[in-house]
Amino acid sequence: MYKFDFVAPRSPEDAVAQLRDRGPGGKLLAGGTDLLLQTKARVVKPAYVVDLSHLQDLERLEHHPGEGLWIGAMARARDIQLSPLFQNGFSIVADGAGLIGSIQIRNLATVGGNLCNAAPSADVAPPLIAAGARAEIIGPDGTRSVPMDEFFLGPRRTVLGPTELLLGVWVPEPAARSGGHYLRHTPRKEMDIAVVGVGSTITLDGERCADARIALGAVAPTPVRARGAEEALRGQVVSPDLIEEAARLAAEDARPISDVRGSAEFRRHLVAVLTRRTLTAAWNIAKQGGTGR
Amino acid sequence: MSKQPLEMTVNGEPTEVLVQPYQTLLEVLREEVGMTGVKEGCGTGDCGCCTVILDGKPVTSCLVLALQAQSRPVRTVEGLGDGDALDPIQEAFIRHGALQCGFCIPGAVVMARALLDATPRPNEDEIRWAMAGNLCRCTGYTKWVEAIQDVVDQTTEGAMK
Description:
A: alpha+beta, Uridine Diphospho-n-acetylenolpyruvylglucosamine Reductase, domain 3, five-stranded antiparallel β-sheet, B: DNA polymerase, domain 1, 5 helices, 34% helix
């Protein structure tokens, strides 16, 4: 283990102050399932870590009916998987959180950690992008809000400044007749990292698609929206043929690389398959009178 | 960088130790507290040998800093059972021969205990999903599942009597 100092802040504001006062070399420690791997491997060498694990306010999950759902940055993946709040309209978030690691890992891993670690394959990113979520950030000068699809800058890079902290994400209430779903492909059922992940949401107006969002994971330096596919859906009568066309366009929107987990060609194929499956699932939920409200 | 005091409850006993800020809970439990039933397999959260119950939830203690356990209860394999009596899960593992080399077993029985505490009557599928974060290179898992199912069946029979 790389040797670093340990700071236990009393509040998010104190955490920001600690980062500012102690200067460069600080890392925020959430669940630790990424950061401690990186410090063990000496890929990351922090001078000090600022531990957020005793800031229980950051673990809050709160539904404000008609407005949206607040997910504190320190909410554990396992808590989201088990929370009744995520079983209806917000189920797409639990689809992603429930796929991370094992139960032991999900009891540690946090939504904020998964996002701020900014792996292109992060399983909570496509669901939150597809759900139109916003990142709520605190820094020395106060708070700011960033749309989730603008949060990532590159592999392991986000919009967060060196003295900023992610407080949580705000997921707006889904429209009445809408649905969403996230799926990923992995060679193993559990304990694996996405070769490709796709999160899709769809909102219906009659038989037409009023709005759709498709977010792709692990096919670009950051999670990305398949805007060509979204555009093809908007305003059209939804049908299996239309979904097939959107899936084809989503594969064109992807910019995958070849690596140990899969070739670019295979990933592009997976984008089409997973886009078709998640859109179909989202469409079915939306048709059944929406998402639980 | 200096050692910091850590107060936690280990298997019901209030425990105070001085730890380095970069030490993992796994290291401290083994080296400072003497709970050597907690095993380090991979050190990267993949194998589950270091599973302990932190604040009521099973976690891989190799990916937790010791100081993150400040003021929290920790339960290790040493805290299973009651005095000389083994936990029913441990009894069932023995009865079913659900171990060979034994290295992964402390983590596995702690995980199985956490499963049954949260879900007293899991089906086979639920058992397999719950145990997915515990790797065993000897048994092939079938006997683990049988042993855990046996505990479930016995509990169910006991409740019906």
